[in-house]
Amino acid sequence: MATEPEPQGPARLPLGPQAQHGRHAGGPGGGPLGRIAAPTVLPPVQALPNRAGDSIPEWLEPAMAANGIGSFDWDIRRDLIEADQRACDFMGVSDSGTELSAEAFLALLHPDDAPVVRRRVERAVAELGQCGAYYRTVFPGGELHAVRFRGRVLADAFGRPSRMVGFVWDATAELHKREDAGRQAALREDRSRFIKEAARALSEAVTVRDVARVFTELPLPGLPPDGLVLAAMEAGRLRILGASGYRAQDMVAYDRMPLEPFQPAAEAIRRRLPVFLASPEEYQERFPEAWPRVRGTGRSAWAFLPLVASGRAIGLCLVSFDDSRELDADERTLLSTLGGLVAQSLARARLHDAEHELAAGLQRVMLPRTVPAVPGVTTAVRYLPAGSGLQIGGDWYDVVPLPGGHVGLVIGDVQGHDVHAAGIMGQLRIALRAYAAEGHPPAAVMARASRFLADLDTDHFATCTYAEVNVDYGVVYAVRAGHLDPVVRRADGSSSVQSVAGGLPLGIAADQEYPVTRFSLDPGETLVLCTDGLVESRGLDLDTGMARLCEAVAGELPPMAGEGATDPIEELAERIAARAADSSEREDDIALLLLRWDGPEGGLAAQQLRRRIGQADLARVAELRGELRDALRRWGVPQLIDTAELLASELVTNAIRHTDRDAMFTARLYREDGREPRLRIEVEDESDLWPKRRTPGEQASSGRGLMLVEALADAWGVEPRGSGKRMWFELSAGDAAA
């Protein structure tokens, strides 16, 4: 308790006047103080309460008594402390029969204070000087007291230390003051730490919901509130963002409540200064019109903190207490500081939410709202925005119904992750969809899209994959412009990357040509198209990402459980998207498009003949005519044999004569409910040269093929395909159908 490290708090120790009868017995050699005494040592005697006071001048005694000051006289040679009654009372010695030596006196002190007092007394004895100390004593009942003393060492005739005389006075009030100061210092430290932690937590809050959660969970040090409410200003009303300590049903009446001028919240927002109400009486006196509404809330003290950001009030914090409470200056400063932190965090979060909503709305407009249903195939799509930033990018997907009942699949990614990239994506998506819907083959669709993007002069490029799927027999014609290869899930549950010949990204070279890759799907197989955000990031290389994608695509899928159940392709899309959403490495947006070929539409293509005719295999044409006759007879429409054989022979011969590739022949008989059977024959080749109808002379040996088709078929036409064209005609079986 001296000036060098002084004790920091009370401790209950079983010390009292009787402590010197044992482990702290006094006497010569009992400690450093004992060793200072002269060789001749008399036995300790009783502490004499009046002995020391006898030597005090009469005129000083009343002053000492009035100020509660006692005196002591320590005979160093005999190690005997004599003190007046006041000093004994301060030291906890009230029994006149108690012997008090130096060691017995030290035993009365707090363990933390005894070493300090010992050092100071020893130094004063050695230097024949003065010493002073502040120490604590524990009285027999466990009550803690504090004492200050000041003493001077006197020398004998030979200059040796003989006595120490001095004064003692009670310092318990000072002890309590120090304890209060310690508590206040600890509280200030807690509040400083709270402000730092609150600032960190609020800085990490991204959305308005996050800010409300952080605010309502804050533990205010020193003044734990019974209720917290966070509200935002919206069109002159307070919208409650979060609350704690109040029932949800009670908050409904206050949510979006008009901000009336007689309310304390209105005054706080209008003046941009906190409003503190210490009791219900003060609330009723200052805001009598608003008091009836809060009378039954059970609160007795309130703090209305305006949230001010950039000089504008954007909301309000309400801190309430069950008991009446007059907040001191430190507490009001703490709450005002908290309000400032919440205001800045809320303003930032509202801006973030607005940007996010803008990005999400723009993305929804750019992407197709629904995916059209095409008979024979099932599709599933997913879009995952980037994990940070504006959450808008240039990734897109599209499903385009094509002439002849086929379908086009588009997946692409415009360079960049901003509104500019999203705008370019929207233009490119519309252009590519238009080119595909016009019936252009995949290579032409991609070439025109590349020229369109180059003409926009945006300094952006785009990667893209376009695939045209023949829904009748599962053939895919794919074109790739700097994009990823697709993945195919086979019917047995395995998966693999389908290699597709590629060209430069769109927009780099206006005259770029794109090769077409043809591959087939079996019924039940799924084609998976995605953008690079799914398989590539700073911490994930492309090969590893593609391997993970194949792993996610492969494996068992739950079967269809019945009508209304989730389709397995949706389960597959969700599984792929979930893995991407859970990845902490994802920094890019993701577009995902899946198509499963279900096979020929049930009942429409129940009877089909399909053959490939080699370009140099002319004998195969004759075999084909025979197979067609047999098929039509077997299908129960023999009346169509002659016409169908003639027209089919014309189309096949025309295809192999005017191209240098094989031709694909397909004949289908459709039996639809309520309609007569219909035969459709198609011949596909890989030539972009379209047939021309001519009027040959009477002696001409060729040129009558299209005239015959036009004259005998119920309907006919030519369609562009991914690579080449398709000629077709249809014949109706009429009433003779079986």
Percent helix range: 25-40%
Largest sheet, described in full? 6 strands, antiparallel
Derived from helix and strand composition plus strand pairing, the structural class reads: alpha+beta
Report the C-alpha radius of gyration, rounded.
49 Å
- Specify the overall morphology: elongated
Helix-strand layout with pairing:
Layout lengths: L31 H4 L15 H4 L6 H6 L2 E7 L4 E4 L1 H7 L10 H6 L6 H14 L2 E9 L5 E12 L5 E10 L1 H33 L3 H9 L10 E8 L2 E8 L3 H5 L4 E2 L5 H8 L3 E3 L2 H7 L4 H4 L6 E9 L2 E10 L7 H38 L10 E8 L10 E7 L5 E8 L4 H19 L4 H15 L5 E9 L4 E7 L5 E3 L5 E3 L4 E2 L13 E4 L5 E5 L11 H12 L14 H15 L7 E8 L9 E7 L5 H16 L6 H17 L5 E8 L7 E8 L19 H8 L2 E7 L2 E9 L6
Parallel strand pairs: 16-19
Antiparallel strand pairs: 1-2, 1-5, 3-4, 4-5, 6-7, 6-11, 7-8, 9-10, 10-11, 12-22, 13-14, 14-15, 15-16, 16-20, 17-18, 17-21, 21-22, 23-24, 24-25, 25-27, 26-27
